Amino acid sequence: MSCVLIACPLAYPYEKRAVVGHLQHPVVRPGLCICEHSLPPALEKSSGNLGRREAVEQLDSRVKTRIKASGLKLRFCTNETQATREKFVKKLQGLGFDISVAEVTAPAPAACRLLKERGLRPHLLVHDDLIPEFAEIDKTNPNCVVVGDAAENFSYANVNEAFRVLIGLEKPVLISLGRGRYYKETDGLKLDVGAYMKALEYACDVEAEVVGKPAKAFFESALAEMGVPPQQAIMIGDDIVNDVGGAQQCGMRAVQVRTGKYRPCDENHPQVKPDAYVNNLAEAVDVILGQL
Questions:
Q1: What does the pLDDT look like over 236-292, one tens digit per residue?
Q2: What's in the keyword line of the UniProt record (predicted)?
Q3: Are residues 206 and 117 in the same domain?
Q4: Which of 151, 223, 225, 260 falls between 20 and 30 A from 235, CA-CA?
């Protein structure tokens, strides 16, 4: 193994649930560790709670120090589409995370590369805070639609405007910055971009091109940036489909943590079977480094 990919919500050890699982197959010697890092909403609200902050700092320090000391490369892969990478990283740094923009793989920059390569001019249905990521993209006379987690911007008027742009194109192109069904915040579960993506697909009889997790291209982009083949990488995530399933489809191994979006029914998923289950990120690292 050469690298590890980690998901952001994993950083905070929520409630304990059962014992650490074991990898079903021997892990090849690691060289890279990629993590999907999505900041848990509970942490976003807790910066004034010293106990939680200390827990995050201690866990983050332990995890990152051990991974780097082992010689593995580390990548934080996020489907965050409500903020630029700079703002996202600044938020994490404010909570004590040792992380830089260069270590983060996110959907918006990947979408910008795709738009430039294909000469596409997007109509944006995204969160206001994400718009700076598209500053260098020509948005005049749109010939495609880009949809992200727009939150309150998912009004009828805004979704309908995106529909009108698509339906008016001879060859409609819909690019989605993810296809998650829902995510969890402190006040409960909320619809994610995937629900609105599906509505536009249905209305316009078009299939969206997904550039965020679980798209194969998203993971391949992270691996290419580190120069590591999928067989030498392992993903740690809390989302059975987007993290675990997406990584495995790319040829990587994947570990699911019983925190964040994890639900007990995930362990009976009909298609996706993680290579291991663990209680939290620290235990995932214990399992991985124990097999080096």
A1: 999 999 899 999 999 999 999 998 888 999 999 999 999 999 998 888 988 888 887
A2: Cytoplasm, Hydrolase, Magnesium, Metal-binding, Nucleus
A3: yes
A4: 151
Tell whether 72 is covered by a domain. yes
Torsion over CA: 277, 280, 284, 290 (sign): negative
Segments forming the whole domain that contains residue 27: 3-79+214-289
> What's the whole-model pTM score?
0.72
